[in-house]
Amino acid sequence: MNMEELRATALAMAEPQFKKFEPIALANTKKVLEAFKECQLSDYHFNGTTGYGYNDSGREKLDEVFAHVFRGEKALVRAHFVSGTHALATTLIALLGSGKDGREFVYAVGAPYDTMQSVIGADREVPASLTEKGFIYKEVPLKDGTYDLEGIAAAVTSDTRVVVIQRSRGYSTREPLSVHDIGLICEAVKAVNPKTICFVDNCYGEFTETTEPLEHGADIMAGSLIKNAGGGIAPTGGYVVGREDLVERVAYELTAPGLGDHMGSYTPGYRLFFQGLFLAPHVVLQALKGAVYTAAVGELLGYEVFPKVDAQRFDLIQAINLHSAEEMEQFCRGMQAYSPVDAHVRPVPGDMPGYADKIIMAGGTFVQGSSIELSADGPIRPPYTIFMQGGLVFEHSMLGILGAAEEILKYRK
């Protein structure tokens, strides 16, 4: 099969799925527009502030809009979160607090991804990690490749303060969770201990369905603004949204007790955050189309792919099991050549903070590390899985995956 045949055949395989995503994007765009209207967004909310940031109307309006869109009582949306992991870690530390309400926290769907393992100190000693602070970490293994409701219920005790539900697959090949799945997990947790907080790591999942985890029993959730919710426009940051008392605790952890969300300036202003949220449902549609197309190309090249072309999609990530570390390098080299930034650079495996294995990554993005923009990466370890995500426009995703395929086919010769 030549490259033109590969392009056309993969597109024919993928197109039936595209039509399923379009009503979701339409509904979510309507939801965002309604939030802007209800919250009375005006252009003066785009203005930045300096110093302490007292009475920052843009910051306050951004919180209000996010709470409205994601159906939370309160939101904390800040450029001061340096990454999604920072937003998640800050939330988890705040929820655990002094431990007087329970010192256990449980990951409900197998192991978290690498950077959160450092936060937890799960498999190695990490200074200032949660286990070093004396909190007790429990992990419910997957059962038949997915979550185990009986196992989750058995893990929850009267001392369980937080259950963390990671929506996306991370660096694994398990299926991502739908909001229905999240609802079932929350129900199982609350049946054992109604006081246990259900905290959703919502990274990569926003706007893939017409409802969000807070509408299905979750108490609080967090994510990154350089993933779905920032629409490829937000320059940095993260968000937390949910129950008012819980979000307030997170604000105290981010700034200082007593100060919370009343302070924090951002001199460049807030337009890009609002504009990113406006674009987010459409950008997620583009990324989902790219993921399905990638699955089709992977299948045509004879690889095992997760999810399959015709599977339902609850996050943006497409995984492909390659055959070797060398193929991972060729894949990333081909995709990097179609990046808008640093297309001339050759990706090589290297160390990355928070990861135990060397990481190979293709990602010439306008925002450093933005995984709503097209990128592909993975740890150099068997089964040599590349995880592709993002894509602001489908055409770029198509060119990128075909570039990766071309390098793979050259290598096979």
How does this model look, in words?
The protein has 413 residues and is α/β, with parallel strands linked by helices. It has helices at residues 3-38, 57-69, 84-96, 114-120, 149-155, 179-192, 244-254, 271-300, 325-336, 394-412, and strands spanning 74-78, 104-107, 136-139, 160-166, 197-201, 220-224, 238-242, 304-306, 318-321, 359-362, 375-379, 385-389. The strands form 2 sheets. It has a 7-stranded mixed beta sheet, sandwiched between helices. A 5-stranded antiparallel beta sheet has the order 8-9-12-11-10, with helices on one face. The longest helix has 36 residues, at 3-38. The chain starts with a helix and ends with a helix. The model has no long low-confidence stretch (mean pLDDT 95).
Strand-helix topology:
Elements: H1 3-38, H2 57-69, E1 74-78, H3 84-96, E2 104-107, H4 114-120, E3 136-139, H5 149-155, E4 160-166, H6 179-192, E5 197-201, E6 220-224, E7 238-242, H7 244-254, H8 271-300, E8 304-306, E9 318-321, H9 325-336, E10 359-362, E11 375-379, E12 385-389, H10 394-412
Helix pairs in contact: 1-2, 1-8, 3-7, 5-6, 8-10, 9-10
